[in-house]
Amino acid sequence: MKTLVIASLISAACLLYIAFSPTEVNYDDAFEQFISTYGRSYSSQTELQYRKMIFEENMRQAEKLQKLNPDAEFGATPFADLSDEEMKLRMGYVEIDNDQSDLDLFTETSDSLNSIDYRGNMKSIQDQGRCGSCWAFSATATFEGRYSLFRKANSKLSEQQALDCSGPNHSCNGGHFTAAWVYMRTHKFCTLSSYKYTGIKGQCKTKCSPTISDKGYTKVKNNESSMHKALQQGPISIAVDATTWKTYRGGVMTASQCGKKPNHAVVLVGYEPQENAWIIRNSWGSRFGENGHIRLKYGTNTCAITHDSAFPKI
């Protein structure tokens, strides 16, 4: 019965699309190329038409974004047949009150904007899947990057441990990177090999291969100069508005139409002076953007990048 209802809704959506969609642009070839490039396979002709409808709307949005962001490229990506609601499942930043009496605040400013790039210190790009676990990937990747700078080597850590064990996070329904560090202050990070990622909420495991704990965290003042200064010591977890990232393919995105309501946690891993741009590590797989990364223009609070940033104490 439920399947029949869903099929009926999809059919109705397709009929509305046929009746009211603009006809001046034909995306048939682009959609066929998308299917071939990303190996898409749909269960029925009805679903294929539904996904094509979404794809075409996403391409129209990509064209608008392209005009607003001339230094970036937008178009077909692995997410081009996903709706906005489906993309929300790949976000998950939630603001929480995690105040601590001994919390430090990094407030220094940077006079010179030197080049910084920690991509070589980071583990391979991962894909959080259809789970709002970005905060866990941000927390572990930032810790891994900073720890590698101090100890020159470290194991791949478990995001699933953060999902299952750290509160007041909400697992796949969202959370905050600092809450993961608060939990790890009194517990040890498990290795990924001993606590594998499933992308669903599970029972907190008490047995795994433990590595090291953090010593709390430091918040960074809400301006890009302080963020650059803090970045000189290692990667930083940040919150951004990723609403318009679905069709990003590469280049430098500017503040135009990027959004001002943070909904996604990522990792700041570098600054590029030639383009005056931040380098940001995402958790949507290596086929997103520039090998799993996106670049945002410095100095314009692009995508609300100054909203919330912090790093763990090693």
Automatic annotation (TrEMBL):
<dbReference type="GO" id="GO:0006508">
    <property type="term" value="P:proteolysis"/>
</dbReference>
<protein>
    <submittedName>
        <fullName>Uncharacterized protein</fullName>
    </submittedName>
</protein>
<keyword id="KW-0865">Zymogen</keyword>
<dbReference type="InterPro" id="IPR013128">
    <property type="entry name" value="Peptidase_C1A"/>
</dbReference>
<dbReference type="Pfam" id="PF08246">
    <property type="entry name" value="Inhibitor_I29"/>
</dbReference>
<keyword id="KW-0732">Signal</keyword>
<feature type="domain" description="Peptidase C1A papain C-terminal">
    <location>
        <begin position="109"/>
        <end position="313"/>
    </location>
</feature>
<keyword id="KW-1015">Disulfide bond</keyword>
<dbReference type="InterPro" id="IPR013201">
    <property type="entry name" value="Prot_inhib_I29"/>
</dbReference>
<feature type="domain" description="Cathepsin propeptide inhibitor">
    <location>
        <begin position="31"/>
        <end position="87"/>
    </location>
</feature>
<dbReference type="InterPro" id="IPR000169">
    <property type="entry name" value="Pept_cys_AS"/>
</dbReference>
<dbReference type="GO" id="GO:0008234">
    <property type="term" value="F:cysteine-type peptidase activity"/>
</dbReference>
<dbReference type="InterPro" id="IPR038765">
    <property type="entry name" value="Papain-like_cys_pep_sf"/>
</dbReference>
<dbReference type="InterPro" id="IPR000668">
    <property type="entry name" value="Peptidase_C1A_C"/>
</dbReference>
<comment type="similarity">
    <text>Belongs to the peptidase C1 family.</text>
</comment>
<dbReference type="InterPro" id="IPR039417">
    <property type="entry name" value="Peptidase_C1A_papain-like"/>
</dbReference>
<dbReference type="Pfam" id="PF00112">
    <property type="entry name" value="Peptidase_C1"/>
</dbReference>
<feature type="signal peptide">
    <location>
        <begin position="1"/>
        <end position="25"/>
    </location>
</feature>
